[in-house]
Design brief:
Layout lengths: L1 H35 L19
C-alpha cells in the first residue's frame, strides 16, 4: 500500500511539469503555423489618377 502511494505522489509531482512542457511545445508549434500562412506576395495598390489635359 505504501509503495502505491509513493508512486502516485511521484506521478502527481511530474504532472505539472509535463503540462507546462506540453503547453510550451503546443504554443511554439502554433506560432510556426501562423507564420507560414502569411501572404508571400506583397499587395500592390493602384490609385486612380487624373489623366490631366483640357478643361
Amino acid at each position: 500500500m505504501k509503495e502505491e502511494v509513493e508512486i502516485l505522489k511521484k506521478i502527481l509531482a511530474l504532472l505539472p511539469i509535463l503540462l507546462v512542457a506540453g503547453l510550451f511545445t503546443f504554443s511554439a508549434d502554433n506560432q510556426q503555423t501562423k507564420d507560414k500562412q502569411e501572404a508571400s506576395e506583397p499587395v500592390v495598390q493602384r490609385m486612380m489618377t487624373d489623366p490631366g489635359g483640357g478643361w
